[in-house]
Amino acid sequence: MSLKDVNWGPLLTPSKPLSTNENGFISSERQELALQRLSQFNMARAEAWRYTSLKRIVQLKLMSDAQQTEPNWQLSFNEEAIKASSASMLLNSKLRIISLSELAKQNRDQLAEQAFVWIEQQFAQDETMHDLHSLHYRDGLVVIVEAGQDAGELCINMKREKSQVSAQSAIANTLQIDSRNIWFYLAEDAALKVIESFETEQGLQNHTQLSLTSMYLSKNSKLDYVRSQEQSRGNEQTSLHLGRVAATVYAEANLSLTSLNLGSDLCRLELDISLEESQARADLSGLYLGSSDVLLDQHLTLKHKAPSCRSSQSFKGALGAKSRGVFTGRVIVSQGAFDTVAEQNNPNLLLSESAKAVTRPQLEIYNDDVECSHGATVGQLDEDALFYLRARGLDEAAALRALTSAFVGEIRETLPKQNLKRALDSSLKQSLGLELELNEAEEWIDWELISANI
To answer: What's the CA gap between 309 and 277, in Å, rounded?
Structure first.
């Protein structure tokens, strides 16, 4: 197949020749099929990609295999560092981590076989992000939590530094692509906390992070998942982050998900959550901060497929300068999914006249016995709240800082780690010129009252 007419640039150039695959999981036939589908895909006409354009990298070339280097991987389990280079790690009787290529080759017990079959089904989907990952597949990690076990906390960080990128690549105007694939498989009654973060060194350009994270929550399992995207902006507007998080939630299982989109020139994050059996629950929240002319696109699909399931969504955007924020929240309630409760809220705060926010709540309900609600707002800071603070002695800058702090504070307080709160504070300061922490003169303000009116 010729690539001369493809308009996705180096993203449609396989990182390895199609005829070779070292670990055998992604076959050349699978890559050919993915390439064919993507080459025929018209992004300009696809409603789901309506606000996301990859034209910034069309003219770049993919970095050669000789130039490609691995980013820094940092893993910690219950605050103890572990080696990410190990192909297979049995950390304890509760949790095991194994590379997908190793899982594909070894003799698998029943639980590992169930996880492997599920992963194969994920890659078989006719879905844009999966096709992109098939072209740039470089193995991945599988995390399995044993039945009835509370495994604790797993932190996974991927960071790309400028020293890891060939100087020749910048001169040659080529693109570095980092691809990360992780699958979490929780057996019945299992529990796990996960913090997944993405970083690049400030000023790194011509760089794309592809991220695929999938979750399988068996009956009565619980997963608390925090995702933080802190990729730096490039000098030539060529820092991209394309991520997908998919979760399949079964009976009485609980998924809590928090997303922070704090960086990159262009970020496209897809969340695809499916409540498969009765009394499954998903609570989703997120915050996206925009500055300069960045584009932050959140595309969420939440499917209620069974009776008595619960879901909530609360995603906030704070946008300054000429940035754009997009939130698409699609909730589908299937026939037979009676006694459904689904809530969605997407307030957006515009901190400049040139900033733009697009919010698209979408409800598809094929059942009468439901409680579904959605709310979406786009606007600047409330004038009455500003007057309230100015009347009590705060200058305009302090009042703006205080109101924005109140706006993001609800999500900030739910973050489980201080480093995540520091990353959010730093992003507010660097991107929007705002200090989150309050000085002594502001501590007496009734923040609950202010937050309720923003």
So the answer is: 8
3 state SS of 369: coil
217 near 199, Cβ under 8 Å?
no
Residue that is last in its domain, among 261, 277, 293: 277
Q: What is the pLDDT of residues 139-186, one digit of tens each?
A: 888 999 999 999 999 999 888 776 665 554 555 567 778 888 899 999
pLDDT at 314: 95
Does any domain span residue 207?
yes
- Does residue 341 lie in a domain region? no
Whether residue 78 is contained in a domain is answered as: yes
User: Distance (Å, rounded) from C-alpha 423 to C-alpha 229?
Assistant: 10
407-412 LR contacts (CB < 8 Å, sep 24+): 407/316, 407/318, 407/347, 407/349, 407/451, 407/454, 408/287, 408/289, 408/316, 408/318, 408/436, 409/436, 409/447, 409/451, 410/316, 410/451, 411/258, 411/285, 411/286, 411/287, 411/314, 411/316, 412/287, 412/436
How far lies 117's CA from each of 138, 273, 285, 432, in Å?
Answer: 19, 19, 30, 45
Question: What domain count does the chain have?
Answer: 2
In a domain, 28, yes or no: yes
**Domain extent at residue 241:** 9-277
Mark whether 264 and 408 lie in a shared domain: no
CA 207 to chain CA centroid, Å, is 17
Would you say residue 89 has pLDDT above 70? no
Average pLDDT (290-319) is 94
Q: Which of 277, 308, 338 is the last residue of a domain?
A: 277
What are the residues whose beta carbons fall under 8 Å from the beta carbon of 33, sequence distance 6 or more? none
Stated pTM of the model: 0.88
The position carrying tokens 């299982």 is: 253
